[in-house]
Amino acid sequence: MIYKGVEFTVTAVAPGIWKWQFHVGDKAITGKTEAKLNLLAIRRVQLRIDRELKKAEREITRPPDPSVGHPSGKS
User: Which of 23, 36, 58, 62 is the most buried (most CB within 10 A)?
Assistant: First the structure.
């Protein structure tokens, strides 16, 4: 399945237990969730994708840290 351009999978591993995975950039994110309905498991993965996309966006738009690479923190 694809959600907001992110391909993800949700697979039943036991009654009420779902295994999921997706990639954001080079980062693979996996997990399990408990849900009686597959649509609820899918929705939970979509919400996780939203969080990871927001986190990745913040990392991209964050200004560079001037102290990185300089032990004293001075340029």
Answer: 23
- In tens, the pLDDT along 18-58 reads 999 999 988 999 999 999 999 999 999 999 999 999 998 88
Model's pTM, two decimal places? Answer: 0.76
**Length of the chain (residues):** 75
Task: Convert 16-40 to b/e letters by CB count within 10 Å (16 or more is b).
Answer: eebebebebeeeebeeebebeeeee
Tell me the CB-side half-sphere exposure of residue 60, using CA atoms within 13 A: 8
Compute how many other C-beta atoms are within 10 angstroms of the C-beta atom of residue 65: 9
Question: With contact defined as beta carbons under 8 Å apart, do 17 and 11 qualify?
Answer: no
User: What whole-number distance in Å separates Cα of residue 1 and Cα of residue 11?
Assistant: 11
